[in-house]
Amino acid sequence: MTALQFPCTIFKTQNRFNDYGAKDMRCGDLSAAQLKTQYHLVDVSTRACPYTLTKITPFSQPQSMFHGSRGLGDKLTLQQCASILFDEFRYLSQSFSVYGPYRHLIEQMITHMQYGDGLTFSNMQLDCALKAHILNDSSQQKSTRILLERAFVKNIDWTKNIYPSGKKNGLTEAILRGKLPKFDRLQDTFNGMGITVHDTWATEITLKSLQIANDQYRAVVHYKIQDHFGLDSEDITKFKFNQFRLFRIWFVLQRYSAFGFQPFMTNIEATVEISGDRSESQP
Question: Where are the domains of the chain?
Answer without folding.
Answer: 8-281
